Structures are given as C-alpha cells and as structure tokens.
Amino acid sequence: MENETVSKNFIEQIIDKDIKEGKCKEVVTRFPPEPNGYLHIGHAKSILLNYGLAKEYGGRFNMRFDDTNPTKEKVEFVDSIKKDVEWLGAKWNGDVLFASGYFQQMYEAAVKLIKKGKAYVCDLSPEEIREYRGTLTEPGKESPYRNRSIEENLALFEDMKNGKFADGEKVLRAKIDMASPNINMRDPIIYRVAHISHHRTGDKWCIYPMYDFAHPIEDAIEGVTHSICTLEFEDHRPLYDWVVRELEYENPPKQIEFAKLYLTNVVTGKRYIKRLVEDGVVDGWDDPRLVSIAALRRRGFTPESIKMFVDLVGVTKAQGSVEYPMLEYCIREDLKLKAKRMMAILDPVKLVIDNYPEDQVEYMEVSNNQENPEMGTRMVPFTRELYIEREDFMEEPPKKYFRLFPGNEVRLMNAYFVTCTDFVKDENGKVVEIHCTYDPATKGGNFTERKVKGTIHWVSASKGVKAEVRLYENIVDEEKGVYNEEDGSININPNSLTVIKDCYLEPELENAVVGDRFQFVRNGYFCVDNKDSKEGSPIFNRIVSLKSSFKLPNK
Ligand code: ATP
Ligand code: MG
C-alpha cells in the first residue's frame, strides 16, 4: 500500500479548506442519534465517519442524544446505543450529551427570535398550517397571526411555556418567507405544545423544540464545526443556516450532507424490523439475520470488519446500494489470519477404522492457522471411531468425486490415509456407519509416497464434544425482492435459519466463550452466540461461509 496515493473524500476536502482559510481551529464532530430504536449498519457508517474525522484532525467527537421528541424516546435505547458506539471503538469526548440538556438555551433562543421580530405565535390548527403552506408549485399564504406585536408574542410564548394551552392549540413559528421556493423556509414551526413527560426532564417542560430549530442550536452550543448528516437534510440546510445566523453565533457550525448507506436486499427500516420482532419471525432486534449493530455483533462480525467495510464503501454524495457480500468479504479478511482453524462436523456420520487399536488415543499436532504460523499448534485426539461429514461419503460417486466411496483412499486431515472398505445402512436406506482401514505409515499429513486426491476432516467420536450450530441465510427471499408488492410486507426466506443440534466438534471448543471466533475448516467462520450459550455448552453461529462471490474492484 506504500505507493497508494490516499485521495481525500469530499468532506475532508471541505475541512482542509476551512482550516487553511482559518475558519476552523479544532475540528468538532458529533453523532446525534434519536434514542428511538437500535442502531444499524447505516448508523455505523455515520459513527465511524464522524469519529474518524475528529481523530484524523486531532479534534473532538461528541456523543449527543437528540432527544427533543419525548413521544418516541426511551432510556432502553440510550443504553443500547451507547453500548454499540463503544463496541465500534468510537471514543467520544467527555460525558454523553443530551439535546434535552439545552432546553433552557433553546427557549431563550426562541425568545431572542421573538424579540428580533423573527418569530411569532400562531393559532392556526395543524390542518390550516398545512393548507397555508402551499405546494412545490404554489407559494404559501401568510398566517393571520403573522404580524402580532413582539409584546403579544412574548406573552403568548410565555403562556405556552406555562401550560396555558392544550397540545396543538398554539405553535411558535419562525418568520421567514411564505413565498420561498423552499417549503422548509415557509415560516416553519419551531416550538410546539406537548403535555408529555420527557425521559430526562420529566414534566419541567410542556413545550418542545422542533428538530430543525433544535439541531443547529445543539451544534452551535457544543462548538461543532462540521455537522455531518444524510442527504435528506440538504433542503433543510437554508433553515439550519438561518437559525445560526439569526441567533448570531460567533463561529456557526456548517452542515454537510452525504449519501446514506444502503445494502441491497437487506432490511434496515425500524418499522419493518419491529414487525419481524413482533411477529416472532426473528428472536429480537439482535437476531443474527438482521443488520442492527447488536445483530452484527451477535452474528460474529468484528468492529474491525465493519470499519473496513465502511472505508471500502467510502463517503459520497451519490446515493447507491452496496452488496451484502462486500460485508462478508470484510469479515473473512479480518478473521483470515486471526481465527484458529478447527475441525467441526456439522452433519455427522460415523467412520470406524477397523484395523486401529480399540482403546488407543493418539494426539495429532495440528497447526492453528496454516497461513499464520505464529498462532502455533494444538494437539487433537484421534481414535478408532470418528465422525466425518455425511457429504464426504458416497455409495455411488459421480465422476470427479474424490472423497470416500467403497475402495477409495483419502487423507484424513492432519492424520492418516484411510481406505473405505464397507458401510452400513439402516432400515430406511440411510448410511449410518462407514468402515475403513488405515495405513500407519501415512501419519501426519505429510506423506508423499502415494498420492490421494481427497482430504476430509474429522472429529473423534469418543473425545469430541456435541454442540448446537446455527446457519443463516438472508431473511429476505432474494428472488422475490425485499418487499411484497401487494401488501408491502417483507418477502421472507423460509430457510433463513437452520439449527443443527448434534454437531461434533474438537474437544477444545467446549470451552469457547462469547467473543471467540473460529474457522471451522471447510464450513466457514463461526462465533459463540452471545445470547443462548451456556457455560461449558457454547452454541455456534455461522458468521459467513468460506466461499465468496465478491471480488474487490482492482484486485
Ligand atoms: P433510521 O430511520 O434508519 O433508523 P434515522 O435517521 O432515523 O435512521 P437517527 O437516530 O436520526 O436515525 O440518525 C442518527 C444519525 O445517523 C444521523 O446523523 C443520520 O443521518 C445517520 N444515519 C441514519 N441512517 C443512516 C444510513 N443508512 N447511512 C448513514 N448514516 C445514517
Ligand atoms: Mg430519525
């Protein structure tokens, strides 16, 4: 990578310019989630972008909850969001901040606007306000309350604050321009009456600021220099700028928009996930088939892999959608040299070596990761009876099948060559036992005097441990597409979860704990499930298979 010229994204270019022109001394960014749900992969992009910029420029990154709408917000989400941001490795400056901590300042800011003749109390009903607003092609109409005197506005706003009005009876509006081509500028509501308890301020307030008024104030109070948000706020930027200008902040923050991250064939919308949870299609917001950060963590993704993914996607203004296999590519890359490569049999059938001593246990030295010798070796017990994968034996093999079949010799990975001699079926014709003989001269996997074309993995039947393994596919039926056109529901893939109860694993895996990740040779990367595992009986989730359809451009 030494010769690679690192090209800066458009946000870095803006920051560089601001620094050069002396407009910005210290870069301050923030992540401003509304605590009304769990974070997903798209939020991870925003978190890592904001944190990454602060780090790159030696500045500050604030963690601030945008809790100005008490109807939808819960403490539960505050806690889960903090945990997710920490897990991603984004370190915020000082304490966690809350927009509700600035309610007093926001109130004073509203009073300031009233005093400047830039805000007024309006008695129109919500329906009338909508009607008066006009459309994209027609200008709006001025409210009959628009020209109230400053004194009257101050008194009415005070009454709003003191609970004299019912919800919806009166609002405070910015006095901007009802003929503006930008609807957001047609005297937007900046304060509303809502007699609801807030999860932090309780019943102290019965008026709450609107997002477009509150957000720039929050940024300005914190000294945020670059307020990064997603494209849907582009049309709100003139209002953002109006607020910080009219409130006369000395070093006003600058809003910059970038494109949201979308994954093809993946559900991220809260509304849809909520329904999947309520309908019991998934076992919670952290179901490993979802892409909430909690789900990705439970599935076994690492923070490093998510960072790699976000970096690969890049930051742009152009909306697009990224393929899920790119995320899979990142976790494979991350685990390739880190994860121990173990033997695990997911669909076991017994293999008996008839000429191997009955009570003998041999410990085979096995490399933990052939591509990373520093990871050392381990000793794996080998016995007369083993389990192998059912698909590694065929009674009547097709051409080019090089694994076990009657008369064929294969290599047992890290152990001996064996030749299939016989097999046993049950009354239904299912193979229940395969017999073979081994050649003691072939021990250790490096035997070269004779060649075999197939290598299969195994686990000792008496020394191995039984465990549950869960395999996943996309919860969405990709052939049908995400949404059912008729009723707008999700097209569910009925095979998205496979639970296998009786897998056999190398004995060492019995002691695996939450946070451990392994490669199970030939079967993929796995992690210990963080919800259902018990001490001494871990359950393993497949993070990703080993095969990839994804190719990095330019590689
Ligand atoms: P959603 O509706 O998907 O839950 P949201 O925009 O309502 O998302 P917020 O809590 O308001 O969620 O967002 C916090 C921050 O995360 C905002 O700055 C927002 O722009 C950003 N964000 C949300 N979704 C994405 C996404 N898909 N890609 C990148 N950033 C996102
Ligand atoms: Mg939101």
Number of strands: 27
In percent terms, what proportion of residues is strand? 15-25%
Report the total helices. Answer: 12
Low-confidence stretches: none
First-last Cα distance = 13 Å
Helix content: 10-25%
Shape: elongated
Mean pLDDT: 95
Write the SSE topology.
Layout: H1 10-20, E1 28-31, H2 41-56, E2 60-65, H3 75-87, E3 97-98, H4 103-115, E4 119-122, H5 126-133, H6 150-161, E5 171-174, E6 189-193, E7 207-209, H7 211-222, E8 226-230, H8 237-246, E9 254-258, E10 261-263, H9 270-278, H10 293-299, H11 303-313, E11 320-322, H12 324-336, E12 340-342, E13 344-345, E14 348-353, E15 362-367, E16 377-382, E17 385-389, E18 409-412, E19 417-425, E20 431-439, E21 455-456, E22 459-460, E23 465-472, E24 497-505, E25 517-520, E26 524-528, E27 539-544
Parallel strand pairs: 1-2, 2-3, 8-9, 10-11, 12-25, 14-20, 18-21, 23-27
Antiparallel strand pairs: 4-5, 5-6, 6-7, 13-24, 14-17, 15-16, 17-22, 18-19, 19-20, 23-24, 25-26, 26-27
